Amino acid sequence: xxxxxxxxxxxxxxxxxxxxxxxxxxxxxxxxxxxxxxxxxxxxxxxxxxxxxxxxxxxxxxxxxxxxxxxxxxxxxxxxxxxxxxxxxxxxxxxxxxxxxxxxxxxxxxxxxxxxxxxxxxxxxxxxxxxxxxxxxxxxxxxxxxxxxxxxxxxxxxxxxxxxxxxxxxxxxxxxxxxxxxxxxxxxxxxxxxxxxxx
Length: 199
Known about the structure:
By secondary structure, the chain is an alpha/beta fold. It has one domain (about 30-199): Vaccinia Virus protein VP39 (Rossmann fold, 3-Layer(aba) Sandwich). The chain has helices spanning about 5-10, 15-30, 30-40, 60-65, 80-90, 90-95, 130-140, 160-175; strands at about 50, 70-75, 100, 115-120, 140-150, 180-185, 190-199.
């Protein structure tokens, strides 16, 4: 496997030196698409929010500032990202407003709460059974809750990004979500696509 392919895989489960570099790139290059995705979710001060694949914890940090009376849960299967995100969000964790978990979305645990909002950025590429996973996510959401799935594909065109968007719309509809829609943000080097659906 070439070095580029090895590096690209680090965005699925960052580990070791290449994983640290991937985490730093997520932090430096991913903030614009994270802020955009969060803006589409219309976060309220008391929302309970789940992020799947929190990486270095940038979105978790932004969400915790927007939800002073809410609760943020994150799940990621990278031990390296777990440690980075913990460090970034230590104060909110100590205050009991953020709960970071190490685990796999394919084995999403049951929660004591139901979520108002769910987001996942550039992780659905790595889900083996996306529709089954989305069905399980839907079960941990409140009625009327909203999910946002954002992708900015590697080494692709804007047209290909739209194709991914249509594919994600199909996944959400097949998982039982309604009011499914797609938003597109022009970015470099390729557009980001966010697909939203309601429970």
